[in-house]
Design a protein that fits this description.
The complex is a heterodimer of chains A (about 325) and B (about 250).
Chain A (H helix, E strand, L loop, with lengths): L4 E9 L2 E10 L2 E7 L13 E9 L6 H16 L3 E10 L12 H12 L5 E3 L12 H15 L5 H4 L33 E7 H6 L8 H11 L1 E5 L5 H6 L2 H5 L4 E5 L3 E2 L3 H9 L10 H10 L4 H4 L8 H9 L7
Parallel strand pairs in A: 4-5, 4-7, 5-6, 7-8, 8-9
Antiparallel strand pairs in A: 1-2, 2-3
Chain B lengths: L5 E9 L6 H16 L3 E10 L12 H11 L6 E3 L2 H4 L6 H26 L7 H7 L5 E7 L1 H5 L8 H11 L1 E6 L4 H6 L2 H5 L4 E6 L3 E2 L2 H9 L10 H10 L4 H5 L2
Parallel strand pairs in B: 1-2, 1-4, 2-3, 4-5, 5-6
Classes of the chains: A alpha/beta (about 325), B alpha/beta (about 250).
Amino acid sequence: MGQAMISLFSRTSQNTQISTLVFGCDSEVLHLDLWLQGNHMENPDNKREVVLLACGSFNPITNMHLRLFELAKDYLHETGKYKVIKGIISPVGDAYKKKSLISANHRVTMAQLATESSDWVEVDDWESSQNEWLETLKVLRYHHQKLASSNPDNSLQSAVPLIKPGRKRKQEANRYIPVKKNQLSPETKGVPQLKLLCGADILESFGIPNLWKLEDITEIVANHGLVCITRAGNNAQKFIYESDTLWQHKNNIHLVEEWITNDISSTKIRRALRRGQSVRYLVPDAVRAYIEKHNLYSPESEDRNAGVILAPLQKYARGCKQEQTL
Amino acid sequence: MMKSRLPLVLLACGSFNPITNMHMRLFELARDHLHQTGRYQVIEGIISPVSDNYGKRGLVSARHRIAMAQLALETSDWIRVDPWESEQEKWTETVKVLRHHYNESLRSLQFRKELMRKNWPIERATEDFLSSLDPVSPELKLLCGADILKTFSTPNLWKEEHIKEIVEKFGLVCISRAGSDPVQYISESELLTRFQHNIHLVTEWIQNEISATHIRHALCKGLSVKYLIPDSVISYIKHYNIYTEESERGK
């Protein structure tokens, strides 16, 4: 916010505080109603917009993956501070070299079939179409950049709504000035926050040596944030407590407890398929039909990348001299 | 000569208030398990929602529960919902529902036998030959969670002779979650032990416990239940405005 702005009066409403800033500029008086991030506002237009990004193998996508989005959205909405506007599924590229990882084309297609019935979750194949494996942070940065550049009103100047020129408003300290709904245009919201959506296993994988770079984790939790879905009694809280980095940014790590025990892992789905068992009602029907049609999962497919070192481990183990403390 | 499999029908009783993905998953699990034994061919699954006068709090009208189950089962080629139990004036004991459906399948079998005999030229028919063509009457088994076994020992909940008829004449297919021990419930009961050959225990390794109670609570609070129950059922619930705060508070 520019230094030219002067805070002239404030209004307190219940537990909230809005600063109404007046921007003086010649004969024109521009009103700029801003909200302070984190303040609880009854007015839904003032909620911070959030986009959820889920990275992973999605090998295949399951109902559990899809549930993560729904749980995260409900949780963030219930805080009253956020409005989740989009969910992005970003399947990892084949260069990740995880065992049993089948071709990205199939994984992306299945995710697309799975999200057809969703009006807010979509699939992005940028990550999967890269030739090399990409760190999660790079994917976050890419999508954040994408969101920022597609937001038409990044600059504060264009975000300031003008009132009729020549009209001067009386300025009295503590005078109540009602917030006009039409003054809170969407442009004042800024770039949506991009948060990484994950299960508790991802959070705890932060501790696996050479899987993540400490500076990546730091940037993820500092600049973006995590929404982590956990099961009751899970170690997530303890894990955060035991990590200086995570503790420092714990306000940016949202732990969401799932209220049904949902253990539909892709590994179990693949196992069931190999054994000719039904996976109906565990994955969306369209995904099940696609898997059947293309006979995607077999003992052979499970052996893909057997003996190959996972890309991040290969990358970091090479240059790593001392172990970093999370 | 290869031994042919016995045809089998699975029957699940319950509130189905509402039907969830887990209910339907139980059928899939049971069928896979029975097929794997090599002895059975599961030919049908029946969902039998309880009648309204069961008196359970929060039970929405049978009309809705049947309709939602029908929507949920649209994509299934072997499971169907049957309204007979829900249409009875009084609450029907499980054994009576089993008897009804067993008699129904015998009736339709008889009909088919007669049809076949009509179509076969009389000159070539001998009684023996015709009998060998007769379709075998399917077995009917009760599909349930393994906790049903536990409830058999609850005093006054079940009639002893009913339990006996269920396990002796029909049979159970019990689904339990990994880590639980349903065998214990069987061994604790002399009756169940005697007919344990007719109690099929199936372990669900992919935990997916979607309790209908939780679903109703979530709906009341406006939380998402997508991917837990079929989309068509969610639309139905929204359209008819059921499972709202008022309906949950008690009817």
